[in-house]
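Bumping with the actual sequence this time:
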Amino acid sequence: MLERNQRDSVPIENNVAISHGTAESMKFVKRTGLVVLTYLDSIDWDGEKVQLVTCIAPKREEHLEILNCITEAAKTEADTGTLVKDASSEELYRKLNGLA
């Protein structure tokens, strides 16, 4: 992830950053995982305001489905704000995994 972030910044719209490894690093992943960091007060991520940071370690091409779930859950800045400020950890899990 560090190598990828040095090459390409990963903030996307709606106060969200999505970090993931390189295609070469996928061979080291034993099981797909997702880490979520939330910031009530936004942080600076390469000059962008970010409140929700997701770190994806995909086994194969599963990251595309995960990316879709994240962008669906955070369609607007208001959606992101709600996820960060009001969602329980269970609700956040469900939304970011496309279960809600």
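The tokens above came from a reply further down the thread. The radius of gyration is 13 Å.
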